[in-house]
Amino acid sequence: MKYSAASSMSAYIFLLLFSFSWPITSSQSHESFLQCLSLHSSNLSSISKLIYTPNNPSYFSVLDFSIQNPRFSSPFTPKPLVIVTPLQPSHVQAAINCTGKHSLQIRVRSGGHDYEGLSYVSEVPFVILDLINLRSITVDEENSTAWVEAGATVGELYYRIAEKSPTLGFPAGTCPTMGVGGHFSGGGQGTMLRKYGLAADNIVDARLVDVEGNLLDRKSMGEDLFWAIRGGGGVSFGVILAWKIKLVPVPSIVTVFTIDRNLEQNATKLVHQWMLVADKFHEDLFIRLNLQAANSTEDGKKTIQVSFNSMFLGGVDRLLPLMEKSFPELGLRKEDCTEMSWIESTLYFNEQNGQPLEALLNRTLQSKLSFKAKSDFVQEPISEKVLEGIWEFLYEEEVGRGMLIITPYGGKMSKIPESETPFPHRAGNIGPIQYLIYWEEEGNVTEAQMHINWIRRLHSYMTPYVSKHPRAAYLNYRDLDIGTNRGPSTTSEQARIWGVKYFKSNFDRLVHVKTKVDPTNFFWNEQSIPPLPVRG
Predict the structure, then answer these.
(1) 10 Å Cβ neighbour count for 123?
(2) Which of these, 274, 321, 360, 443, could form a disulfide with 155 (CB 3.0-4.6 Å)?
């Protein structure tokens, strides 16, 4: 009798909340999926509040809120049949069970920063599992650890750490709106990587729901799977619910500076000199480069502006002698520097210097422009002649729209073995280049393709001057140009074309882990790790 009543209530909820017109095949799938979800929920009214379908007035606001690249929000972009916003692990378990049972694909979104939109776009009928409500953060100051749920942002994490202690931090990225679920699972690099490594290097436990709906922690998932999700992209293996991270000590005072130099101020020579020394700086010193075209003081002309953007884990009086010894060519002066707390520096690097710390809690980007990105790893200093070729590319685009960001490695990054985590780009790298091009998205496909072609030509130009065999790339700067899976039946040999670029020799171990934990390739996307074929 109880079962009958529950079934009747389920049917009522569907008729009331979720009835809408779809093509027959999709309609049958999504309605069956919703029915399944309700049957797996002990509280039917609460689960209904976590589900959004296109007939729900909040559907598009929920969908668009965490789309960080408008390139994937056009009317022609495939939309999910259903968005599920779980509040607890059982909701995630039900979503996995029901998508599998009804042949729907699942896409998992924590912050929506996947560069190619893979966390919220698919070419086949799909469901988005949006983790935006799973964002609790518990900081254990005494043991210098924290549990952070996958839907929390980097900014929220930094804010909660600072609430507890001014001398603890975490070495993750500089964009505060990134979700930690994806950011950490791809590596996660930031201003303290030369001192403490990547975010993934400082994870000590995790909670994950696997393809069978099991809720696992480090002990129950085993060391192979725990290894794989720390740099191998968690969505290939399950749904990460939370990370336990090791917090790191930070001084009460750090020093930041940004020095801009143009071609008339020897920018080309300074970039080349940076290439010679950046990975050899003291590990407390981080100086990254931002290269872009700028307006010249001469009317109608352009120049190149290079920004030397730095954080030093200490005071200015200790920094200046180090700079005089390591990089005197930059001509750093005390008045160029600002001392502040580490938490204030996280705002500085997001161009929010002087804003209240609460700005870190804002999950919305300050501005959203369509963009395309690519990446490389530099292993030998780039000559001045090659740099001048890069300048010519930057002149082709509107000021401020095309840019290169070069991050220095060395320090701790060179001390961690390539096989310690799936992220293999360690010793021997000066650092990664991130190529970026931004444009206004106004439905002009021709214009968008023009910008994408520009970045592809620049990337092609750089071929002789970056890593080889393989030409490496960084997973968190996802780039489908380097290769894609053609479907869930893609073999590991077919995926190797892109897999070794992200993971080098670690790709093979990732394939073996995938085969063990998801042999049917339920967690599939255009650049997910494929399993080995099932033996008959």
Answers:
(1) 9
(2) 360
Number of alpha carbons in the 13 Å side-chain half-sphere of residue 247: 25
**∠438-135-520 over CA atoms, to 5°?**
80
Q: Is 484 exposed, middle or buried (0-12, 13-18, 19+ CB in 10 A)?
A: middle
Among residues 178, 245, 182, 234, which one has the least CA distance to residue 209? 234
Ranges of residues in the chain with a pLDDT under 50 are: 1-24
Q: Which residue has the tokens 């979503």?
A: 95
The catalytic residue among 52, 159, 477, 502 is 477
pLDDT per residue over 196-224, tens digit each? Answer: 999 999 999 999 999 999 999 999 999 99
pTM of this prediction? 0.93
Is 477 assigned a catalytic role?
yes
pLDDT digits (tens, 9 = 90+) for 272-322: 999 999 999 999 999 999 999 999 877 778 999 999 999 999 999 999 999
The DSSP secondary structure of 353-392, one letter per residue, reads: TTS-GGGGG--S-S---EEEEEEEEE-SPPPHHHHHHHHH
DSSP 478-522: --GGG----STT--HHHHHHHHHHHHTTHHHHHHHHHHHH-TT--
DSSP 418-469: TTSSS----TT-SEEEEEEEEE--SS-HHHHHHHHHHHHHHHHHTGGGS--S
